[in-house]
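Collaborator request, handled under Task 6.
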Amino acid sequence: MPYDEALADRVREQMSARGDVSEMEMFGGIAFMLGGNMAVGVRDDDLLVRLSREDAQSALSEEGVRPFEMGGRRRPKGWVLVEPERLTDDAGLSEWVDAGADYAASLPAK
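Structure tokens returned to the collaborator:
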């Protein structure tokens, strides 16, 4: 299934306020990088968010958030998928985009 291009456009708009943003196709979708580090992505109609391990563990207790699985087996620590129901308004999307972007910005640039 192709990724949700409307969601990608909304993410692109929110990420545009930050410097050093790039895009890359990966994980069957599109990823938004900040300083060379992945911040968020769109996979199918979900938002993929990279967080600290602690923040990701906390996020998994929220409704509509589940672990990201690579190839159906491997679950990278710190990566979560947020379901579309949590992203219907700009405030809901912004919360997750900012969380991923803030974490990516905290990492050394690549």
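The cover message to the collaborator said: "The longest helix spans residues 90-106. The chain has three helices and six strands. Please let us know whether this matches your experimental observations."
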